[in-house]
Known about the structure:
Layout: E1 15-16, E2 22-23, H1 29-38, H2 43-53, H3 55-58, H4 70-74, H5 76-84, H6 89-96, H7 103-122
Parallel strand pairs: 1-2
Helix pairs in contact: 1-2, 1-7, 2-7, 6-7
Amino acid sequence: MSATRPINLRRLLPVGRWGWLIRTPGFTPREVRQLLREGGATPRGRAVSRCLARTSDWLPGQPDVIHCPFHYRHNLPHILFWYSHGESVEAIGRRVSAFGTTWGVERALDTACRAIARCLNTDPEGYGLQL
């Protein structure tokens, strides 16, 4: 058994995560949102779940009226928990808001998915993702 790691041929491609010409992000907010629904069935899904468990890494520091209003920021871990367990955005909106609107829930989900993707792209090994 060899002690060296096998050569990753993807590192030779000009475009992609390791591209020498154009680098693309490893995780996108859209992929994070999809992996929240799928759970930990894949290594990337498990990395998203680990990041989700560390709320101090991705939770926005200050409420922002446009991206994540205060009431939704306060409930953001609950919103992501319900969303990852299959709740619809409409059902979450009814739980969180007296008016039952989806606008704030969508904004909060987008903000959280962007922050989680940023964390995972910055330190994938810290969340258990082997490159």
